[in-house]
Amino acid sequence: MVDLDTSVRGSILRIGEASVVESFVRIKFSGGLGDVVIGNRCNINSGTVIYSGHGVRLGNNVLIAANCTLAASNHEYEDGERPIREQGLRPSKGGIIVEDDVWIASNCLILDGARIGKGAVIGAGSLVRGEVKPYTVMGGNPLKILGYRRGHEPHSPPAKARSLLAQVK
Ligand SMILES: CC(C)(COP(=O)(O)OP(=O)(O)OC[C@H]1O[C@@H](n2cnc3c(N)ncnc32)[C@H](O)[C@@H]1OP(=O)(O)O)[C@@H](O)C(=O)NCCC(=O)NCCS
Questions:
Q1: How many whole angstroms from its chain centre is CA 105?
Q2: Is the pLDDT assigned to residue 51 strictly greater than 70?
Q3: How confident is the model at residue 166 (pLDDT cuts 50, 70, 90)?
Q4: Cβ of residue 94 lying under 6 Å from some atom of ligand 1
Q5: How many Cβ atoms are within 10 Å of 141's Cβ, its own excluded?
Q6: Which of 118, 105, 123 is closest to 45 using CA atoms?
Q7: Model pTM score
Q8: Are 92 and 74 in contact (CB under 8 A)?
Q9: Closest residue by CA, ligand 1 atom 37
């Protein structure tokens, strides 16, 4: 039931070990020549659509909830005298990169140029266009910081210092 395009013009689709791509996920090779690379132990839920565009890379342990769209390219649209469909693509912003241990909740939209840092959480219904800092909890449109995962608050001591402090207590 998963709808996976075969790769086109040399693009690669790679799905890592123990990753699950649920029914009614669509991975479509269009809008560029980028690869779609999914790491290990990822889960992509139903209704999610991935347009390969300029490339989509998911790290390991990435969770994508239902009905998300990852659109890694944009149509060129500037010329108002010609149909958009004849104008090709806008220059690449680098595709979409999602680092390890990220949770993207339901109904999110991730655009070309998005870089979601390790450990981040993207709340339901969010629009992501640029950089998301590691271990932040983000949500909304425009995206804003909702919080931080424990141990990664802005002024929390680095992991090594925390373990030393724990020994002292
Ligand atoms: C992001 C999320 C995990 C945060 O949950 P939480 O820690 O319980 O946070 P709260 O509900 O206490 O909300 C904290 C604040 O963030 C805001 N917020 C929460 N989720 C938000 C979202 N998706 N978009 C925008 N703002 C959001 C709340 O309005 C609240 O703001 P306030 O303090 O100004 O009132 C949760 O809201 C969410 O989006 N869950 C996704 C569920 C889902 O898609 N599940 C699919 C199964 S995999």
A1: 11
A2: yes
A3: confident
A4: no
A5: 12
A6: 105
A7: 0.92
A8: no
A9: 123
Nearest to 50 by CA among 88, 9, 16, 98: 98
What residue's CA is closest to ligand 1, atom 10?
146
The pLDDT score that the predictor gives to residue 49 is 98
pLDDT of residue 3: 76
Domain range list for the chain? 3-168
**What does the block give as tokens for 37?**
């690379």
Q: Which two tokens stand for residue 62?
A: 């990435």
Closest residue to atom 35 of ligand 1, CA basis: 146
Q: What is the pLDDT of residues 62-87, one digit of tens each?
A: 999 999 999 999 999 999 999 999 99
Q: Is the CB of 47 under 6 A from ligand 1?
A: no
CATH of the structural domain 3-168, one choice from 3.40.1440.60, 2.60.40.420, 3.40.50.300, 2.160.10.10: 2.160.10.10
